[in-house]
Specification:
Layout (H helix, E strand, L loop, with lengths): L21 H21 L1 H8 L4 H30 L1 H21 L8 H32 L6 H21 L1
Helix pairs in contact: 1-5, 1-6, 2-3, 3-4, 3-5, 4-5
Protein name: Solute carrier family 15 member 2
Pfam family, one: PTR2
Keywords: Membrane, Peptide transport, Protein transport, Symport, Transmembrane, Transmembrane helix, Transport
């Protein structure tokens, strides 16, 4: 953890390299987050039209409202991290919000759970939680990853960002 640096403590390294162990968790978490986000988003309009029986205009409008919220919430994530919780706690707490959003959204898609009003309510609550989760962690993860490296490990930090963005794109493409 970057907070340990300067106190005489060293972070454990990954397989004898200068990469902190935390980097593996950051890269895998980001891959999974992008995989789940784009996988869900790819079928979202179809879900609205065929499962919730909305017309194409409403489905498209809600899809774009959700996408817009996902682009707005990084401002909130940055505010939370910079003025209240810090990057690490913001990532942890909003990742939990993100997962809860996916669970709520998934429960809303179970045919035997309630009526169409409950399906819509759960789906919308789930989407809002997903938007806050994904947007909230977005401004923190890359900076937190960079913070894991000592100043003398600039080459490793540069390679980390290449691997980090490759994992984001791999998760997006594979979804």
């Amino acid at each position: 953890d970057a907070e340990d640096h300067g106190k005489g403590q060293r972070s454990p390294k990954l397989c004898g390299t200068n990469y902190p162990v935390s980097i593996a968790f950051i890269v895998v978490n980001e891959f999974c987050e992008r995989f789940s986000y784009y996988g869900m988003k790819a079928v979202l309009t179809l879900y609205f039209i065929h499962y919730l029986n909305w017309d194409k205009d409403l489905s498209t409008a809600v899809y774009h409202a959700f996408s817009s919220l996902c682009y707005f919430t990084p401002l909130l994530g940055a505010l939370i991290a910079d003025s209240w919780l810090g990057k690490f706690k913001t990532i942890i707490y909003l990742s939990i919000v993100y997962v809860i959003g996916h669970v709520v959204k998934s429960v809303g898609a179970i045919p035997d759970v309630g009526d169409s009003t409950l399906h819509i309510a759960l789906s919308m609550v789930g989407l809002v939680l997903i938007a806050f989760g994904t947007g909230g962690i977005k401004p923190c993860v890359a900076a937190f990853g960079g913070d894991q490296f000592d100043e003398e490990n600039t080459e490793e930090r540069t390679k980390f960002f290449s691997i980090f963005y490759m994992s984001i794109n791999a998760g997006s493409v594979l979804s």
